[in-house]
Amino acid sequence: MSSVELKIQRFDPERDAAPHWVNYTVPVEPMDRVLDVLTRAKELFDGSITFRRSCAHGVCGSDALMINGRNRLACKVRVEQLGKSISVAPLPGLPVIKDLVVDMDAFFGKYRSVLPFLVAEEPAGEGERHQTQEQRDRYDDTTKCILCAACTSSCPSFWAQPDYVGPAAIVNAHRFIFDSRDEAADDRLEILADEDGVWRCRTTFNCVDACPRGINITKAILEVSSAIGSRR
Amino acid sequence: MSGALRANASRTDIDAVVVGAGGAGLWAALELAREGIPTAVLTKLYPTRSHTGAAQGGVCAALGNVEEDHWEWHMFDTVKGGDYLTDQDAAEVLAREAIPAVIELERMGLPFNRTPDGKIDQRRFGGHTRNYGEGPVRRSCYAADRTGHMILQTLYQQCIKAGVKFYDEYHVVDLVFEGGEADKGGRCSGVVGYKISDGSLHVFRAKTVLLATGGYGRAWRVTSNAHSLTGDGMALAWRHGVPLMDMEFYQFHPTGIVGIGILLSEAARGEGGYLLNNEGKRFMESYAPKLMELAPRDMVSRAIYQEVRAGRGIDGKDYVYLDVRHLGRKVIEEKLPDITDFARVYQGVEPISEPVPIQPTAHYAMGGVPTNLNTEVIAGPDGSVVPGLFAAGEVACVSVHGANRLGTNSLVDLLVFGKRAGKRMAAICKSTQLPAARPGAETAVADEMAAMASRPEGVRPAEIRRDLAALMMDNVGVYRDEALLSAAVREIARLKGEYARVRVEDTGSVFNTDLLEARELGYLLDTAEATAVSALARKESRGAHSREDYPDRDDAKFLAHTMVWRGSDGAPAERIAYKPVTITIFEPKPRIY
């Protein structure tokens, strides 16, 4: 077993005045992911090392962290991709609760603000609605979002203006705006035409780099902006 | 009291409490909201982190959109797949109500893949057949290989729309009973929640409580399950006198990533993937000539073990290949995108050009908290109801899965019975009064948790957890016998003894995951014990329970559900009873595919 130098940004609100870095030398296996290394450090050295995790294979969105300076899911980054030195910090731009755990309430509040649900008259009868595969494909990319906040917390516009609704909320609005079954696109576009809506995007593509689901977020934001433009 | 818990619990009175926000909990909450019932949903995660989201391949319903199908065929497959331990009245409910449930999901906005004429597309899945076993049928409705993700998202979206009140990151640490425990005629009157962000306790007094907490795959070392799946609901019910049913039936899914257990969906085989041994042979020919790779999971997992034992594992090791190369890039990338990504990220294997090494992985509990068809928890073989307590989804045992669950039926289960739970709870909330308040309802659990966080020395939870997971893998896995199971029962008792001295290092009150993981370990030990004790008592082989010392099914003695009660005062579980299987249409037959 070889080892890595793991540097964790730690903060305990009951003890610490400010976040600080703590180093651990952690044994690793060849196929280990950063989540495995964090878990091992917690088991071997200090049970109070605190982070969220659940599915451990990139579908639940619990363990988005800033790893070697980039927002990534800890369960999707293999240690061998990072070399001998790994730094792990909480997602930037969100309030830290403890160690690597950030307060997600405001993030989910923005998600809820864009009407992230199908709005449609109940169809007649009891059957399914029909939708062509082409209509389905139109919004496929943005259905993949797992709300991990890696994108929003990587966005310089969000860092500068925390009221910005952010890429994740726009992605989830996009998912319904371009769904042929939905009838509330205008309401969502109205919400996103606000000064803290889509116009704050500066197309830096940090969100695209950060997304663990490979969603082309900037393209989705531009499609929403364009829909707002053509509506006026 | 230790710093890990804040003093002075808050108290809330409400009609309904839903514990867990996966598919079953969310659909129940949605029904309760539609009926105007004040409801609190408590989840130890954020709802969208729930493990329903990890389900991949699809949800079966006999829509008949692409070929002839009937709910009776689905019912038959479910009964036969469960090796005739399935209660047939429950299987009928499952197969019938799957159809409106899937259509309702579509109407809620779920983005199903579509047929050329715009209907919900359907594909093949293991054990699902046409005309009572003639050959595979296209019954699984799907959204690429992210069906569970789409179900979870869609139900959460609808809950937001309906104004459901969520308590995110509230860990339910106890149930409250009044008038005695469940086995003494008591009534469930609420829950104790622990707010993870600040260590405060919250007592919810309620007319109805739904357990929708999922399974306990983390009792095994190699598992497809999330870290959060620690048997919370099962263990809490067990501690209050509810028996656990059919716990010996635990499913190993055939195609997990070697070593770490992450699931590669059965959809890979539904789309036509092969399983190959080291001779390049499709070895399922020798085990299930008609359904081949689409035989039920228990049979495929055993076949893999047999191949490995016969020296036909890849490079003589303990795994075989899943091969999808012949499906071509387009099918692989469009219909199996996520599992392709998993193979690339976690194994460094490219499925388009290479076969993928796989081995069985601990996946799903057929057993759990026993309920009737309306999701009301029952206290024993006579079916008497535990007032106020409900269970739905993997935590529950209705029993629709019998001795072995078919692929996709977990999603069908949580949709159909999650919805039924909400409806039944709403009816009861309208016709009953709040139970009497129980002062100090939180005292016992508060003391237990405070003790863990204030012991000057003791055993680390991680050590016990590691030993338990290895033990369950070695002794309570795909193949079992008397010696393995007896040793498991003894060893679990020893680990429970160690657990009485468990010590957590984190003594703070803010986001104390160290403390919660220790608490979860206690649930795992309970569910593991129930599993091993039930498995030792069942001297036959049926479905996922394969006894090498009793290789045949024994309907004369064991066509019945096991019910096991927890021992009192820390003693090992001894009390077992059997509940007859409900047979309505299909007489038990040998199970050949």
How does this structure look, described?
The complex is a heterodimer of chains A (232) and B (593). Chain A is an alpha+beta fold. Chain A folds into two domains: 2-102, Beta-grasp domain (Ubiquitin-like (UB roll)), CATH 3.10.20; 105-230, Orthogonal Bundle (Fumarate Reductase Iron-sulfur Protein, Chain B, domain 2), CATH 1.10.1060.10. Chain A contains eight helices and seven strands, in the order E-E-H-E-E-E-E-E-H-H-H-H-H-H-H. In chain A, a hairpin with a 2-residue loop joins strand 3 (64-67) and strand 4. In chain A, helix 2 packs parallel to helix 5. Chain A is elongated and about 60 Å long. Chain A starts with a strand and ends with a helix. The mean pLDDT of chain A is 96. Chain B has three domains: 11-249 and 366-430, 3-Layer(bba) Sandwich (FAD/NAD(P)-binding domain); 255-360, Flavocytochrome C3, Chain A, domain 1 (Alpha-Beta Complex), CATH 3.90.700.10; 443-548, Methane Monooxygenase Hydroxylase, Chain G, domain 1, CATH 1.20.58.100. The model of chain B has no long low-confidence stretch (mean pLDDT 96). Helix content of chain B is 33%, strand content 21%. Chain B is an alpha/beta fold and 593 residues long. Chain B is globular. In chain B, strands 1, 2, 6, 7, 8, 9, 16 and 17 form an eight-stranded mixed beta sheet that branches. Chain B has a four-stranded antiparallel beta sheet with strand order 11-14-13-12. Classes of the chains: A alpha+beta (232), B alpha/beta (593). Chains A and B meet through helix 2 of A and helix 3, helix 4 and helix 9 of B.
CA-atom Rg of chain B in angstroms: 23 Å
What is the architecture of the largest domain in chain A at the second tier of CATH?
Orthogonal Bundle
User: Counting H and I runs of at least 4 residues, what is the number of helices of chain B?
Assistant: 15
Tell how many strands the DSSP assignment of chain B holds.
Answer: 22
Rounded mean pLDDT score of chain B:
96
Topology pattern of chain A, helix = H, strand = E: EEHEEEEEHHHHHHH
